[in-house]
Amino acid sequence: CSGMAAPTKAERTACWGARDEFWQCLDSHGDDAAKCEKLRRAFESRCPQQWVKHFDKRRDFLKYKKKLETEGYSPPEAAGKA
Amino acid sequence: RQQRSRRLRQLRRLALGQGDFQLRDTAGAARSKADFLGRWVLLYFGFTHCPDVCPEELEKLSRAVELLERDPALPPLQPLFVTVDPERDDAAALQRYLRDFHPRLLGLTGTPEQVRAAASAFRVYVSAGPRDADGDYVVDHSVLTFLVDPDGVFRDCYGRSRTAEEVARSVRGHMDAYEPLPP
Description:
The complex is a heterodimer of chains A (82) and B (183).
Chain A: H1 9-28, H2 37-46, H3 49-71
Helix pairs in contact in A: 1-2
Chain B: H1 2-17, E1 22-25, E2 30-32, E3 40-46, H2 53-69, E4 77-83, H3 91-98, E5 106-109, H4 112-121, E6 126-128, E7 139-141, E8 145-148, E9 154-158, H5 164-177
Parallel strand pairs in B: 3-4, 4-5
Antiparallel strand pairs in B: 1-2, 1-5, 3-8, 6-7, 8-9
Helix pairs in contact in B: 2-5
């Protein structure tokens, strides 16, 4: 048992807010994480580590999805044996 | 005709066996599908340590139930939450979590075997992720809300893309079309 209680509604809302601020920063700096370090730290302090991982994956997925929608799908180049 | 009523009794037995569960509610009482016969049920599988999807789906579920409650002519609808994380989601954890949502939303938990059986009965995919250094983990699971009619027959299921209004409209349609199985 991890011994940690699940985040309360207030904690969830604070975490999502910190995540959204961090993502907005990334959006306005072309995903340059170095420009958003302070907000990244705030996001990590407000959310359980498992949620940070989950949201990082979600962001990657959303970016990929957007890329597919705007650029279309091109299969990865076959650059010899992986 | 005798054949018809035999057939209907068969259907009723099938309905009880289909998607049945043996769980415990947040007051510690044993609950199975039979306890909810006579009511419509909207049932969601999730867990309290869920980052975003479960609170969103429960908000949606709560709102759909509220919308339907506004019409006094409609039959009663019981919202249910079944945990896919019985190790952490005991009665106390569920009570704490669910009080942020619809007041009649009832939480169900159980032993890992009971929860596994319930998820399996509804064909819900459940997979706990790896634990981190603090022992924390997320549970990957199908995101679905199931509609069960007063005979215990499964009628519909709703995913992420449906809004609360759409769910309410669909449930109302099923309620209007419903013909009870004779006793």
